[in-house]
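Protein in question filed below.

…
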Amino acid sequence: MPNHRTNNRTNERSHPISHRSSQPSVAVIGAGITGMTTAFRLQQQGYDVTVIERHRYAAMETSFANGGQLSASNAEVWNSVGTMMKGLKWLFKADAPLLLNLKPSWHKYSWLAEFIAAVPHYRQNTIKTVELALAARDSLLEMGRDAGVDCNFEHRGIMHFYKSKAEFDDASKVTGLLREGGLERIALSPDEAKAKEPSLNTKDVYGAFYTDSDFTGDIHKYTNGLAAAFRLRGGTLLTDTTVTDLAPDDEGVTIDYQTADQPPHRQHYDAIVVCAGVGSRSLAQKLGDRVNVYPVKGYSITVNLTDEASQAAAPWVSLLDDRAKIVTSRLGVDRYRVAGTAEFNGYNRNIRMDRIKPLIAWCEEHHLGMSTRDCVPWAGLRPMMPTMLPKVGPGRAPRVFYNTGHGHLGWTLSAATADMVTAHITAALPTDTSATTSPMTTEPVTIDTHKTMPTMAAE
């Protein structure tokens, strides 16, 4: 079987040099959080892994500056009548948490039709998402320890807060679904919420729910830490590299690609895993599959806490404001991440200040004494499936696999879905060492929104 090693210790964009290897070769398309967790897990299982990334560095798309939450407590899917009613109410408000560009687009409106069709599966898909999120926790931490990653993990829980009795009562119903999936969270009064996080202005807070087992971290640092360890252990990371064509066959996939400043290259791999975020839809078409990922834009600001007063005024407990749909994470002593909004506007990556200003205003309202003078804005496209569940498992061709479409929960779910797709590959294409080189014990499971997924409890 061909090997695809490169002189990756000196130049991560080096052209691969093919020679013989005793282990199956796997190409992973995409070096975001799902791509790198998948590649790292496959490498642990003994595969000869090549990651192909179109950006110059890993984690430059949705894994760059997301909200930072690893939040099983935010696993409720959006396919509900209540969410759609809120969406209609917000339709013509420029600063609304959800924004829909009404310009006609077959991709957008076909996706929305499938989103509505998934409403009857709201309960079971929410429970499935909770199970995935819980299964991911230990796996993510184990990979991080193995790679020696430092990414500002904060194990201080996540607190959802609500500003009316109706919102709190709705959240109580969601708490029941979360419990069915195996997650417990506790109700807090406004005074208890204030005691849990003294920096939060609770003047308008009716009540809260707190999940002690949720935590936060810097997704960009984690993903790049995995990438560095992956390369040091002999993995190939081709950056600045664009996939131009894919041709599956019974023995694998032939990939045409071009790395910046180098001639086009063609290479055959024994298997492929598509982890390309919003680019997965077009790649799947080349492989004969339909993966209806739609780009849902989210925004964030990173508040640099440059003075002691701001550092003291910024919360350490991660927050979620249910009404504003805003999440927060403390990333070390001197950074505070605030993220939110969902914008259905195609592949537009522009950072709109009318979407950033509400995030800044929210900080100023809820964290009195924290300066927002030094803020870094960001926008990224979340790869979202209409069912709100990721596409994980095999494609039509025998050596094609997918791990994509995680939406706003990529950081939360990625380690579990990496384990799942790795289990599929080890079942179809075992290595000499795949049974002994990793603590990964997940059985092959394909996520299907219309079937019950086996419970995946964290080890």
Remarks:
- The first helix runs from residue 33 to 44.
- The chain has a mean pLDDT of 91.
- The chain is about 30% helix and 25% strand.
- The radius of gyration is 22 Å.
